[in-house]
Amino acid sequence: MDKIRKIIHVDMDAFYASVEQMDNPELNGKPVAVGGNRERGVVAAASYEARKFGVRSAMSSKIASLRCPGLVFVKPRFDRYKELSYRIRDIFYEYTDLVEPLSLDEAFLDVTVNKVNNPYATKIAREIRSRIKSEIGLNASAGISYNKFLAKIASDLNKPNGQAVITPDQATDFLERLPIERFFGIGKVTAEKMKKLGIHTGWDLKQYSLDFLSRRFGKSGLHYYEIVRGIHLSEVNPNRDRKSISVENTFERDLFSPRELLAVLEKLTQELFRRMERNELRGRTVTLKLKYKDFSVQTRSKSLSRYLENEEIILFSKDLLEQDPLKMPIRLMGIGISNLDIDEDRNGKQLRFEGFFSE
Fold first, then answer.
1. Locate the UmuC domain: which residues (predicted)?
2. pTM of the model
3. Catalytic center residues
């Protein structure tokens, strides 16, 4: 008998909006819409405070502002979202190499066999969420089950900042009660067709034979027949394309003293070395990132034609910090290594890695 898989689906809570609230404390507790403005455009994401007024992603900004007069519109900063997304994925990779990102704010993890030798997927999910909160500053929800479809459904059950598990014993009853439009692969058009046949829930769908579903829905009939029975064999497919490794720190208070900044830089480089060693990677380019008090960001880089030794990374980092006088106090510092030495046939399997400072 095949071993039951343990799949975790991690979904960041209101990711874009939460990042904006984290980076700008003045937005905390306020209804925030990322994207658009009061007159035109489309909402890319909405904070939970805005969702209480019915504001949703893909909604017209004008309609959103009518529903929520106090709505605060902010411009999206996709480079920032990518940066944090890749840092979150770095946490995932400490538990398993079987990570399948679906977007910047969600991913599947197969922890059936994992790097921390923890047999309990629920405990791994809880630990990952705790680390995302402590190391990144954001809330995440998680779903745990024996296949990807159920794990994704479960991650939505206790949002925000919660998790849920659907065990094999619970799956049958859960799927029979699930509204038909919540099933993976059943869109609005198909859901309407099914409802005309009297199919409103999983239990309704389960009453129809494979032959009937195949005649009505073609090749998709087999998928509908299997998924309502909890059969979803799609594996977690890692597709990593890392171009850099980095680490950063947002300070409790803005720093301007060279002595304090050098002390922070030393700690950051040591953490960078640990991540490089863990991933068995070297690089040719060092990048220093500085975020100033006014939230403006500056990056400084230095490269060699060969791979850098750790001592050289330390020297280059200090040179970059002292390269130009600081224009104002610093609220965040980051250090990264890029132009990596990637073994494309590691363990007999081609891997692609995602980075922080570049796309």
1. 7-187
2. 0.65
3. 106
